[in-house]
């Protein structure tokens, strides 16, 4: 056949490929799908494709960077229970209103977390010795549909809470804060307080007609047992704040602490005050940490940077004060690796998590502190087990 001959449809390689597309029986793929559903659990009811498991078991992208702190990967979600901590990725960025990219946050944080072995000799804590930790992979979010994604996230976080495990959510943009709290609050017999670090108030009802990343706390504080009077926002300010957000904060009597307030009253007093508000008549407190509360000089890899933010050292001090009363779960959101430089933002995200976990261990709110003379596996006198729940 010469190149100048007319093209005939039946001679096209594409035609051949169409005819032979089903020649290779997909037996192994079917088996993998079946196992993924068995191990990854059933999706929320709003998901039409019932072959999508609740926890992604490898069929889709976003996470191929190992596990957080190299802890074991828990493949079979039916085995969740009895561990102290579950790292769970929520690779969603369709809630962003400006720069996206946070769908790569869980992957980047997992990858850079391998830099640390999990112990801090200055604090005197070794997370590996004190906590039983697993990485449960990512929630199967539906990037084209934020409400379906919320259903998935709510169900996934609810499952982790129901099993009595402390969830560490690797975001994802801040829209996930709402379903994270919705999933948590369902299993709390009493009120949930929220301590929210951010440069933005995230209290609008809608962004561009949808529940995007500037709206999570409006909807979260509509949940009957997550009242806005137990919401404390720290780090708010700058030139991207929303009038709606502040109006809603005022009407709902939320507590807003700006960077200026932190400077004026000092870290200790501000944190004492935040704890008082968040814990007032509350059964537990949830920590929502937006990486953009820190100055973009330290955290450039984020969607809506706002100059003049907190410094990493200030944040670590604050986290050590706030986490010492215990937490029911936490999220680190808005890490956007495509805008990052040398992984510094992802690294900061991992350190926020580790400072919190270390503080929870040191204050006997999670895990246990093994004693020197103790036989392996034997609970120490200082076991925190009794403090949990
Ligand atoms: Mn923010």
UniProtKB/TrEMBL annotation:
Keywords: Hydrolase, Metal-binding. It comes from the Bacteria. The keyword Metal-binding applies. InterPro entries: Ureohydrolase (IPR006035), Ureohydrolase_dom_sf (IPR023696), Ureohydrolase_Mn_BS (IPR020855). Transmembrane segments: none annotated. SUPFAM superfamilies: Arginase/deacetylase (SSF52768). GO terms for molecular function: agmatinase activity; metal ion binding. One of its GO terms (biological process) is putrescine biosynthetic process from arginine, via agmatine. Belongs to the arginase family. Agmatinase subfamily. This is Agmatinase family protein.
